Amino acid sequence: MLRESNTWDIKCPTSLIEFFKEKQGSYYFKVNKSEAENIVKILSLSYNIKEPKILVDISVLRDRNCNGMYSPNTETIHMYSMNHAKTIFHEFYHHLDTCTKGKYDSSDRNKHAWNFAEKLWEEIRTERKKYSLK
Question: Is 7 inside any structural domain?
Fold first, then answer.
């Protein structure tokens, strides 16, 4: 959610849609570290910001009882060895907010990071369904 206009700025580049079209199986939404790196690279290019680092860091996530975490000081997304893509989108949104110095509101209190993840995921799912019907 853009703070100034209170509107969404969802960018779903074709390369991100293609990435998920190529993934097969019933767990196509699960991504590993290398796939998460690819996702944040695509999104970072789309939003014209630097890429966050991706770190598989199970102990930190278990200690905090969460599925993913963004550390603004190190610009790092912490993930399990496999995460749902929406978790990566959510953590990327915190990174986007950090890199743009608060242009986006990613506060968990307002659930904007989760809403961003849901909206982006829905665009990808819609396009993936069209592809599978061909």
Answer: no
Domain of residue 50: give its range: 14-133
Q: What is the pTM of this model?
A: 0.91
Distance in angstroms (rounded) separating the CA atoms of residues 2 and 33: 28
Domain assignment present for 54: yes
Report the C-alpha gap between 50 and 108 in whole angstroms: 22
Could you report the per-residue pLDDT of 115-128, keeping only the tens digit for each?
Answer: 999 999 999 988 87
**pLDDT of 17-44, one tens digit each?**
888 877 766 667 899 999 999 999 999 9
In the chain, how many domains are there? 1
Nearest-angstrom CA–CA distance, 21 and 10: 19
